[in-house]
Amino acid sequence: MSIAITIPKQKTGNPKKVILLPSLPLNILPFEREPVIKCVLESMDIKEFKQLLDFLKSRGVDVEIHSYIRHKPTNELLEEMLRGYRIVYHVEPYRFNYKDIIYAITLKFRPPVSGMDVKVSPEDLLVVRISII
């Protein structure tokens, strides 16, 4: 799948926060303000995700990556695949912000035991862009 994005070059400004979640927890969405929330889910592989980050960077966008993923092997693979980007890890729950660019990065399969640290390859990851509209 190809994704077309047009972003003007930025000289200065606030960094763009890229949020990495292990899933889309519905309780992060602002239902108290908006009872109907629509979202678009776009899947891609980890290489396409990296190309998107590189594109943003080439347009002068200061990218900040914030990960709420706790699966150690997935984090190790992300650090390897996203070399050149600093990833800030969080243990507290993510608080939704419309300005954030949100991705769910999860395994395409379930480990035999929930939470088990299984070896992960790039082909094992499902990357989904979550656009709240």
Low-confidence stretches: 1-11
Helix content: 10-25%
The topology string of helices and strands comes to EEHEHEEE
Q: How many structural domains can be distinguished in the coordinates?
A: 1
CATH T-level fold name: Rossmann fold
Number of DSSP-assigned strands: 6
CATH class membership:
Alpha Beta
Question: For the largest beta sheet, what order do the strands appear in spatially?
Answer: 2-6-5-1-3-4
Radius of gyration: 15 Å
Which word captures the global form?
Answer: globular
Sheet of most strands: 6 strands, mixed
Instruction: Give the name of the CATH superfamily.
Output: Uncharacterised protein PF08960, DUF1874
User: What is the CATH architecture assignment?
Assistant: 3-Layer(aba) Sandwich
> Roughly how many Å apart are the termini?
21 Å
Based on secondary structure, the structural category is alpha/beta
Mean pLDDT: 86
Number of helices: 2
Percentage of residues in strands: 25-35%
Structure description:
This protein is an alpha/beta fold. The protein has a single domain (16-132), classed as 3-Layer(aba) Sandwich (Rossmann fold), CATH 3.40.50. Helix content is 17%, strand content 26%. Helix 2 links the parallel strand 3 and strand 4 (87-89). The longest helix has 13 residues, at 46-58. The radius of gyration is 15 Å and the shape is globular. The relative contact order is 0.29.
